[in-house]
Amino acid sequence: MIARLTAYLGREKAHLIRSYLRWMAAASILQGAAFGVSVLVLRDLLDGSTAGAARWLAALGGLSIAYWLADYRGIRRGFDMAIELLTTLDQRIGDHIATLPLGWFTPANTSRLGQVLSTGVMDMLALPARQLTPLIRAAVTPATLLVVLVCVDPRLAAIAAGCMAAMGAVYWLSGRVGRRTDEAVDAAISESSDRIVEFAHAQPVLRTMDRAGAGRSLVEAALAEQHSRERRQLWWVIPPLLAGGVVMQIAFLAILTGLLSLATRAVDPATVITLVAVLPVANRLIAPLGDVANYAVGIRMARGEIDAIDGILAAEPLPEPAHPRVPEEPRIDVDRLVFGYGTGRTVIDEVSFEVPAGSLTAIVGPSGSGKSTLIRLLARFYDPAGGAVRIGGIDLRDMDGRTLHSLLAPAFQDSYLFSGTVEENVRIARPSASQADLDRAAELARLDDALADLPRGWATPVGEGGARLSGGQRQRVALARALLKEAPILLLDEATGSLDAENQSAVSETITGLKGRRTIVVIAHQLTTITAADRILFVEEGHIAESGTHAGLLAAGGRYAEHWRLLTTAASWRLTRE
Question: For residue 215, what are the contacts with CB-CB under 8 A and spacing of at least 6?
Fold first, then answer.
């Protein structure tokens, strides 16, 4: 663990943890030495040598003061290290996630990231005071006292060393078993938590379908598995801990027995006096080791938090080019693109097409055909397994992130709204935008109608993730944000999916009106957007099955023509009275 904490701090700050360890080790050694000197004080008092006792008492006072100073410096260094560790981890995680591909930010990963930042990193602040410092004291102080015993009576030191070794073996075994059971219980708790959240989110559907108890079986199964693993954890962890307590009592009894045995067989009165003097500090050899198990549990839990932090830091970032290039025109070329999500199934297979600068390209096709994956590859959410995406003839991988993102303005179905006002969520695309620019973007995205209905207009808080807005309002905010950015390439994934028919038509007119001024790629089901496209790509099972203009594809009578027939039929559905 120390090596991992040192790696977090880096070379420039690693001296903090080394200084902390040195001071705490020094304090523990001084404490052990003080206990040893107290034996000599008591020995001389029992022997009637007050002058010798006074000398040793002075030494004890000096050691006590030195221990206090070293302990104080060690605790201060521990807090300095913890605060620096907290700051460094926050910065490292923040810097690292800024380099990760956008596709990494799935609900599972963002949930894990939130847990790490809210609890895992904060737990590092308490690690020195609650776990490391007591653990160092519990290990180093008895070891120092053992060295003193070697000087006092090697036979008694040998008995104590054997007892300490037996206790160490029991706690080592307890730690090994505890780590395995902790991992199993953590996995079960995570699964049951996911099932409970899923069950809560599914309540509107389950209740409206009169199936309120239908999802309960999955929750009950997850909770039963958690209960089973926790019981198994108790059976595996408690016996070693109880055994540790028993071994501690046996060890203390063994030391006392050894003391009495050596004292009764000693012929030299000075030896008897020395052994009796050892008796008051004999407990300091064993009692601290009994606390090691408690501290070890905290260390084990902290190791789990560190594993979670390492898991995030181990996520592979998108590689940045050593010599980034900047395209001169917003033309998109897709060349034999191949991509899968690591499941062994190819989602995009040998896809090639061109999007001329200033044109409107519509991607259509059945659900699950790979449309959203394809448009996310254009934004470099992921790097392809094969082929390339180029803008202005330059591979996306040959651009740095800042250059690429300056070229793109995306508005996807799951576009995130951060906790702030409507204006703050839109203005983030272009902080220098004037109020007239904001109003124009709102008008184009038909957000102006929604603003009129919101209680505070532009100043209305949207809540975390846009929870205070309707689906249609969130979508219009995301679209207004994309339009305000005025990037040369506009990527839209179902940009009008949550809008009513009137606003769908109006936004569709906005999109088609941008032809010639922006390069637009849109996943569309809106009929007017499709018919206005310069080129239509019909995607099916990860391939471009057909490509061409609306009129040309209809005349071909292929899969697009069938898809169009289904769209127009659905659009003409009406409720009538029989």
Answer: 198, 199, 202, 206
> In total, how many domains does the chain have?
2
In what order do the strands lie in the sheet containing 394-395?
A: 346-355, 332-340, 386-391, 394-395
| 159 occurs within a structural domain | yes
The model's pTM is: 0.66
Decide if 247 contacts 173 (C-beta within 8 A): no
Would you place residue 186 in the very low, low, confident or very high pLDDT band (cuts 50, 70, 90)?
low
Whether residues 252 and 385 share a domain: the answer is: no
- Find the helix packing angle between 133-152 and 2-46, rounded to 10°: 40
Domain boundary among 279, 313, 347: 313
Contact 536, 523 (CB under 8 A): no
Residue 578 domain-assigned (yes or no) = no
**CATH number of the domain bearing residue 552:** 3.40.50.300
Query: Quick one: CA torsion of 29, 31, 35, 38, rounded to 10 degrees?
Result: 110
pLDDT level of residue 575 (50, 70, 90 thresholds) = very low
- Across the strands, what pairs with 351? 337
> Residues 552, 455: one domain?
yes
289/358 same-domain check: no
Contacts of 414 (CB under 8 A, 6+ apart): none
Letter string b/e over residues 451-486, b meaning 16 or more CB atoms within 10 A of that residue's CB: beebeeebebbbeeebebbeebbbbbbbbbbbbbbe
Q: What is the pLDDT of residues 113-159, one digit of tens each?
A: 777 777 766 777 767 767 788 778 877 888 888 887 777 777 777 87
Mark residue 546 as left, alpha or beta (left: phi above 0; alpha: psi -120 to 50; beta: remaining).
Answer: beta
* Cβ pair 114, 309 in contact under 8 A: no
Output the domain CATH number for residue 69.
Answer: 1.20.1560.10
Burial 89-113 (b: 16+ CB within 10 A, else e): beebbeeebeebeebbeeeebeebb
Distance CA 14, CA 8 (A): 8
Q: Which residues sit opposite 510 in a β-bridge?
A: none
Q: Which of 255, 280, 313 is the last residue of a domain?
A: 313
Using CA atoms, how far apart are residues 20 and 37, in angstroms rounded to an integer? Answer: 26
pLDDT of residue 411: 83
The tokens of 557 are what?
Answer: 């009578």
* Same domain for 486 and 401: yes
Range of the domain at 118: 2-313
Query: What's residue 291's pLDDT?
Result: 66
Query: What six digits make up the tokens of 340?
Result: 């899968």
